[in-house]
Write a structure and sequence with these properties.
Length: 251
């Protein structure tokens, strides 16, 4: 497989779990084992949009148990002889090679995945964010010569990886406590998005929109807005270094 592969450095490695569980997009070449009319093919592809059942293939890194995954879209792009090019947007953990096998089963002729390219991981899109190793090496050489802009265009800020997550903005006085692993209490919250719900992973930001930490929401947005006391988010992964903001808490 080729395509988009986000790589994190330093403290940014702590947010990779968000990308691991985020949606993906692939462009796939599927080889049919028999001839199929285009209309029949398109009809079957449409049937695989929505929730599907999948059992991971034999060569997989997870337990082979039946599970459900969601296919957001499955667009037919081109057919040439027995080769079918399609684009699929899917939930994390979807096996495209198993998807091709299942499509072949429904068509009645059989099919397998021939080539696969990942074109999106969460907010990172091939046409916008993809950088080659040659491009990275060139940017590094320019940085060594005193030119910062090429490297800044290659290495994205950690906040870029979190833009699809529900967010909570906190007061400056709460930042350093969070950096030391404290859970977020309601008085420390300034604002939040409307899609926070219990159990969801949320990104915690400063007033300057600097990523502070990832946490597990303990309340929904309406509850947070209505209540005055209590813990709203359990801090799980701290991104911002302690001491970046003044200490405003006591042991």
């Amino acid at each position: 497989m080729t395509g988009v592969l986000p790589i994190a450095i330093n403290e940014a490695t702590k947010v990779l779990q968000v990308l691991l569980h985020g949606g993906k997009e692939y462009v796939c070449v599927m080889q049919l084992h028999g001839s199929v009319p285009d209309e029949a093919l398109k009809g079957v592809l449409a049937e695989f949009q929505g929730e599907v059942f999948q059992r991971p293939p034999l060569r997989a890194s997870v337990k082979r148990v039946l599970r459900t995954r969601f296919i957001y879209y499955l667009n037919h792009l081109e057919t040439k002889e027995r080769y079918v090019l399609f684009k699929v947007g899917c939930e994390a953990g979807t096996y495209v090679r198993k998807l091709c096998f299942d499509i072949g089963q429904v068509l009645g002729c059989g099919a397998h995945m021939k080539e696969l390219r990942r074109t999106r991981v969460g907010p990172f899109v091939e046409d916008v964010n993809l950088v080659s190793f040659e491009g990275l090496a060139d940017a590094w050489d320019r940085w060594c010569e005193g030119m910062e802009e090429p490297l800044k265009s290659v290495i994205q800020p950690v906040e870029k990886a979190l833009i699809l997550q529900p967010e909570v903005t906190v007061r400056d006085s709460a930042v350093d406590a969070l950096c030391h692993g404290a859970d977020l209490a309601l008085p420390g919250i300034v604002s939040l998005s409307d899609d926070v719900r219990p159990g969801s992973t949320v990104a915690i930001y400063t007033l300057k929109k600097e990523a502070v930490a990832l946490g597990k929401a303990l309340m929904s947005t309406p509850d947070i807005l209505e209540k005055d006391k209590g813990l709203a988010v359990k801090t799980e992964r701290v991104v911002l270094k302690p001491g970046t903001y003044p200490r405003k808490w006591r042991t």
